[in-house]
Design goal:
Elements: H1 2-42, H2 47-75, H3 83-115, H4 121-128, H5 130-157, H6 169-211, H7 217-253, H8 261-285, H9 287-308
Helix pairs in contact: 1-2, 1-8, 2-3, 2-8, 3-5, 3-6, 5-6, 6-7, 7-8, 8-9
Organism: Microtus ochrogaster
Transmembrane segments: 21-40, 52-75, 90-113, 133-156, 188-209, 230-250, 262-284
Main location: membrane
């Protein structure tokens, strides 16, 4: 019975990870494609569309890197003890992970500065210079990225082993623990920025909703619907991001999960939920992306009916 339950759980987690990967890949590829096509047509692209496109591309790379590493770890664990193989997987994962979380942070900063409403003079100044704020944050993220790369390279090349090409199993686990802990610490930086900006944005939206009670009913209904929709999108974004970070923290606290395939699948499925789920939230919350998705669904429906006839 225990073996049967374990097999069912493993199959369920594998299906979940596969579905998240498919949804995330298609969703992020769709976001990037729509914005790139619109850019080519109009010969210009807004800052928010630039951020969304870069975020979608980095998340697609992150998903493929994550799933590739997962497959190698599960199907050929011995390969992960080879220094060059381990280094290649870790670097590709770290690079795509870094930019995916930081572009998500840029998006939260942009939404905060454009949507929130505070009378503070510092906020007003930052609001008028939203593009500069995002660019400065980008420079800071690149500095952190190079520091992260240096630290990761030191950790990978640091352990002394019998041969220069292969780790022992113990060394592999030790290196993985150190790298996971390091990346989690670096991830806490953009997460903290995102947490602060989105909580302030939620506070601003809630305060504005409360103040609209004094306005005319017709105006209040339209504005309230828009603000509630914004609140739902922001809250979902923050929830998914928090679950993602908590998943990383739990892995660093319980490294024994590496010995259990079910725990590996669970943690990795939780990690994939953020870039996959948020792509759906972005499509539903953006009028251009939502309209494009409806057009695609209508076209697919027509094609299906045509093939049936």
């Amino acid at each position: 019975m225990a073996v049967t339950i374990s097999a069912v759980l493993q199959a369920t987690l594998i299906i979940t990870v596969n579905m998240e990967f498919i949804i995330g890949s298609l969703g992020n590829a769709f976001i990037a494609l729509v914005n790139i096509v619109d850019w080519v047509k109009r010969r210009k692209i807004s800052l928010v569309d630039q951020i969304l496109t870069a975020l979608a591309i980095s998340r697609t790379a992150f998903l493929f890197s994550l799933v590739t590493t997962l497959l190698v770890a599960l199907l050929d664990p011995a390969a992960m003890t080879v220094r060059t193989v381990l280094k290649r997987h870790i670097i590709s994962w770290m690079v795509s992970h870094h930019f995916s979380v930081w572009f998500a942070t840029f998006l939260s900063i942009f939404y905060f500065l454009k949507i929130a409403n505070f009378s503070n003079s510092i906020f007003i100044t930052l609001k008028w210079k939203a593009k500069k704020v995002v660019l400065i944050t980008l420079v800071v993220s690149l500095i952190i990225f190079f520091i992260n790369i240096i630290v990761i390279n030191i950790l990978i090349d640091g352990p002394k082993v019998n041969t220069p090409y292969r780790y022992s199993s113990n060394n592999t686990v030790d290196v993985y623990v150190l790298i996971l802990l390091t990346n989690t610490r670096f991830t806490l930086i953009p997460y903290t920025v995102t947490l602060i900006t989105l909580l302030l944005l939620i506070f601003s939206l809630c305060r504005h909703l409360k103040s609209m009670r004094c306005n005319a009913k017709r105006f209040r209904d339209v504005s309230t619907a828009a603000h509630i929709k914004s609140l739902q999108s922001v809250a979902t974004f923050l929830l998914l991001y928090t679950v993602f970070v908590m998943s990383l923290l739990l892995q660093t606290w319980n490294i024994n999960f590496l010995e259990n395939n079910l725990m590996v699948l669970f943690f990795w499925g939780t990690a994939i939920a953020f870039p996959s789920g948020h792509s759906c939230v972005l499509i539903l919350g953006n009028s251009k992306l939502r309209q494009a998705s409806l057009s695609v669904l209508w076209w697919l429906r027509c094609r299906y009916k045509y093939t049936e006839n």
